[in-house]
Design goal:
The chain is an alpha/beta fold and 303 residues long. Helices cover 51% and strands 13% of the residues. It has 13 helices and 8 strands. It has an 8-stranded mixed β-sheet with strand order 3-2-1-4-5-6-7-8, with helices on both faces. Strand 4, helix 4 and strand 5 form a beta-alpha-beta unit. Helix 8 packs across helix 11 and helix 8 crosses helix 12. The longest helix has 29 residues. The radius of gyration is 23 Å and the shape is elongated.
Length: 303
């Protein structure tokens, strides 16, 4: 099967390579020429523009978009839609908001173009391990393109599937990422608590390795935690700054809309916000209040 891959960052490039290894012909395009050159070296056919990518694909065409969510995705899909024809399919494998995906599906359907929102998990490890794929589809395109998903998934009969209509794939991926926030925060807090118990001089890297086997908290995230602690036990080379790419926020917003409590996910999102504040005003105010009502000492700035 032949497919176009648009966006050859770390994840998109790895996906293109996995498809090539699986016997598919991949036509690859990225605004960065170096990324296209790398894809060519790994077996893909290169394209210097969206127009050239479309020209090199047989009808009915299938193009997988793997670019940052937001305006970049909007512009790329709009440009692509103006180049392809009825019967063709666009797949968005990025972390778009599911409401945008449902809208895009409806707009493209009017032009006879199928749209699949493919929530994709696996990160930089997906090339070797495979990707978890959660697909939303209002058409019959999923069935036609299933060999693509089978190749990208960990196995031909597991790790992927159509989860609902248009928008459902990105909705499920949004919730997946919200859960991920909570899991990561729980590990971070537990290991910080153990590190604070200085009298035991705990070897956190060793403990992580112990927990990886047989423990009820074993997981791939724990595997990655163990690897990070093996590389740098004190994490001395890392700043205590944690970014977020949007899905955690959308999950909390959705929980409010549906009146479904998600306190763990919400708390983990707020913990990320706090990590970016060098001198949080709220914490300073807490110290000031204690001083006002009880005369408790405060630590002066610069001391």
């Amino acid at each position: 099967m032949e497919i176009g891959m648009i966006g050859l960052g770390r994840m998109g490039g790895a996906m293109a390579e996995r498809l090539v290894r699986g016997g598919h012909r991949v036509v690859a395009y990225d605004p960065q020429d170096a990324a296209v050159d790398t894809a060519i070296q790994r077996g893909a056919t290169g394209a210097s523009s969206l127009e050239q990518l479309v020209e090199q694909l047989p009808q009915p065409r299938a193009a997988w978009v793997m670019v940052p969510a937001g305006q970049t995705t909007e512009d790329t899909i709009n440009s692509l839609a103006n180049l392809i024809s009825g019967g063709d399919t666009i797949i968005d494998g990025g972390n778009a908001n599911y409401k945008d995906s449902a809208r895009r599906s409806a707009e493209l359907k009017e032009r006879g173009i199928s749209f699949l929102d493919a929530g994709t998990s696996g990160g930089i490890w997906g090339l070797e391990e495979g990707y978890s794929l959660m697909v939303g589809d209002d058409s019959d395109a999923f069935a036609r393109l299933e060999p693509i998903f089978q190749t990208l998934a960990p196995g031909s009969d597991f790790g992927y599937g159509r989860v609902g209509p248009a928008g459902a794939g990105h909705f499920v991926k949004m919730v997946h990422n919200g859960i991920e926030y909570g899991l990561m925060q729980a590990y971070a807090e537990g290991f910080e608590l153990m590190k604070a118990k200085g009298e035991f001089d705990l070897d956190l890297a060793k403990i992580a390795q112990i927990w990886r086997h047989g423990s009820v908290v074993r997981s791939w995230l724990l595997d990655l935690t163990a690897a990070a602690l093996d590389e740098d036990p004190d994490l001395a080379g890392i700043e205590a700054y944690v970014d977020d790419s949007g899905e955690g926020r959308w999950t909390v917003e959705e929980s409010i809309e549906l009146a479904v409590p998600t306190p763990v996910i919400a708390a983990s999102l707020y913990a990320r916000f706090r990590s970016r504040q060098g001198q949080p005003f709220g914490v300073k105010l807490l110290a000031a209040m204690r001083n006002q009502f009880g005369g408790h000492a405060v630590k002066k700035a610069g001391s």
